[in-house]
Amino acid sequence: MPIKCLIIGSGPAGYTAAIYASRAGLQPVVLEGLQPGGQLTTTTEVENFPGYPQGVDGNQLMADLRSQAERFGADIRFGMAVKVDLGSQPYRVWTDDGTELVSDTIIIATGASAKYLGLPDEEKYRGQGVSACATCDGFFYRGKTVAVVGGGDTACEEASYLAGLASKVYVIVRKPYLRATKVMQERIASNPKIEILFEHNATGLYGDNGVEGVHLVHRKGETDERRYDLPIDGFFLAIGHHPNSDLFRQWLEVDANGYIITEGASTRTVLPGVFAAGDVADPVYRQGVVAAGAGAKAAIEAERYLANLYSQS
Questions:
Q1: Is residue 5 annotated as part of the catalytic site, yes or no?
Q2: Which residues fall within 8 angstroms of residue 207, CB to CB, at 6 or more apart?
Q3: Which of 99, 208, 218, 227 is the one with CA 20 to 30 A from 259?
Q4: 156 included as an active-site residue
């Protein structure tokens, strides 16, 4: 017998989908993936998720959601999907240990991964001054000095947001110009708290108790190259996200950046019984609470789909 509902991924979207699907009697199986709990497990303190007035550690938040899903009977398994066949129903998924799973519905909640510069210090200071989400972590830098890396609309949006909290925001841009739209360029250029450092590369970070500064190179590789250290309290990456959709691109529609395309405000994909929820299908908001809401929608839509499917059989 096929599984009724297979959930691939275990961030806020995956665990919330599991809660709703379990309570609906769908007996969902959850593949937690390479990073159980998703991106929020790399955040030390989450203060903007409803229900935690004093804030909550990211790992604790995900543990709470996981525990709630298990309470209602979700079958949560450690492992990741490495191959799928969505060419016909029921759908087939293979895990990294060689197990084959067959399911009538699939909820894809594999999230997205922030792009990093690849500096060893980024990992060293992750959660201690390095962040890829200003909306998530900006509050901790109220009245402090921060730097944003990137030259596109996302970087400008992050810089503008942080300028409302921090005392000073540096925007580190490796090119001599911004790639952002004109309106975004004008917005940060006119903000007295924001200083744009064109033709700069960050080569490392330093600090004994978290990030205390960034190593910079101006005009790297040129005859007038200049290296110096810039004191900062926070280092924000805004060079984009990579949706974890590679496994499904053969079968589903994705946009130019790889985000899975869903039908309107729903989580339905082009394939019947296949749903996408959370950051893998969200290039705009990328917030835990939004992903959780999408997970709930996906489970409700899966339940309705299965009710119709079984009524016809």
A1: no
A2: 125, 129, 213
A3: 99
A4: no
Residue-level pLDDT at 313: 67
Comparing 45-54, 94-103, 294-303, the range with the smallest average pLDDT is 45-54
Q: Which domains does the chain have, with CATH numbers?
A: 3-113+241-312 (3.50.50.60), 120-237 (3.50.50.60)
- pLDDT for res 13: 97
Phi, psi of 27 (to 5 degrees): 50, 55
| Mean pLDDT value across the chain | 94
Compute the distance between CA of residue 141 and CA of residue 215 in angstroms, rounded to an integer: 20
| Percent of the chain that is helix, strand, coil (3-state, to 5) | 30, 25, 45
Closest CA to 157 of 190, 135, 136, 142: 135
Instruction: Tell me the pLDDT tens digit for each residue of 9-36.
Output: 999 999 999 999 999 999 999 999 888 8
What is the rounded CA–CA span in Å between residue 128 and residue 242? 23
Out of 5, 104, 121, 136, which one is annotated catalytic?
136
Identify whether the C-beta of residue 129 lies closer than 8 Å to the C-beta of residue 234. Answer: yes
pTM to 2 decimals? 0.79
The three-point CA angle 80-81-82 to 5° equals 110
From the list 104, 121, 137, 279, the catalytic residue is 137
146: left (phi over 0), alpha (psi -120 to 50) or beta: beta
Q: Which amino acid is at 255?
A: D
CA–CA gap between residue 205 and residue 119 (Å, rounded): 9
The answer to whether the beta carbons of residues 192 and 185 sit under 8 Å apart is: no
> Which class for 89: exposed (0-12), middle (13-18), buried (19 or more C-beta within 10 A)?
middle
Cα first-last separation, the chain: 14
* 9 contact partners, CB below 8 Å, separation of at least 6: 31, 32, 33, 38, 108, 109, 110, 111, 244, 278, 280
